[in-house]
Specification:
7 helices; five-stranded mixed β-sheet; alpha/beta; 5 strands
């Protein structure tokens, strides 16, 4: 994404917003991220200034360290859902210029659906958090004074070589905490049962 923005907007000043100060700098994609062509930790802004520089800044979507009406475009690729959208959308609206543009991609409510169904065969507890529905996102954007939000969905199927690779990806999705999660660990029999269910039906 960063290389694309540089090629598309060679005169733009790109600000790379990192959620933690120790992530400042260009983050190298892991082999798994390269495989599925996503970057979970990169967020990019480019303001009106015309320069070719890229500046990392430390902050979050809930508290963007930029002044009001200071950027023309905000792009988030699979990252903003890790924030509180009720705070993030108004904050992005604050820093965007009047005719600014927000572009973002988010996992939808069907993300990890097969895994969720397999775990439902084991008990009634929730084991994986839900991701927001696009209609709810549209309502939140309107509430944050965005105009004419355009929403679209795309289903992408990813095949993993092992369940371990799947779990590595799930750990990167720091979505809504589960209030109904079980307070105990499962034994190897139940663990094997749901894995067999998942592999059989996925």
């Amino acid at each position: 994404l960063l290389d694309f923005l540089q090629n598309q907007y060679p005169k733009a000043h790109i600000l790379q917003l990192n959620p933690k100060s120790n992530l400042i700098g260009r983050i190298q994609d892991s082999p798994l991220q390269n495989k599925i062509q996503i970057s979970l930790f990169q967020k990019f802004f480019y303001p009106k200034k015309h320069s070719s520089q890229i500046s990392p800044i430390s902050g979050s979507f809930e508290q963007i360290p930029l002044t009001k009406n200071s950027v023309d475009m905000v792009i988030s690729n699979l990252e903003i859902f890790n924030s509180d959208l009720r705070k993030s959308f108004p904050e992005i609206s604050r820093v965007l210029n009047k005719d600014g543009l927000l572009m973002l991609s988010l996992p939808g409510p069907d993300t990890f659906l097969e895994l969720r169904l397999a775990m439902a065969s084991m008990d009634s507890h929730a084991h994986i958090g839900l991701f927001p529905d696009m209609h709810d996102l549209g309502d939140q954007l309107l509430a944050a004074r965005f105009k004419d939000p355009v929403m679209d969905t795309e289903k992408i199927k990813i095949n993993f070589s092992s369940l371990q690779d799947l779990f590595k990806l799930i750990k990167k999705f720091r979505n809504t905490p589960l209030l109904d999660r079980p307070k105990f660990l499962y034994g190897k029999n139940k663990w094997s049962a749901w894995q067999n269910h998942y592999l059989k039906n996925s």
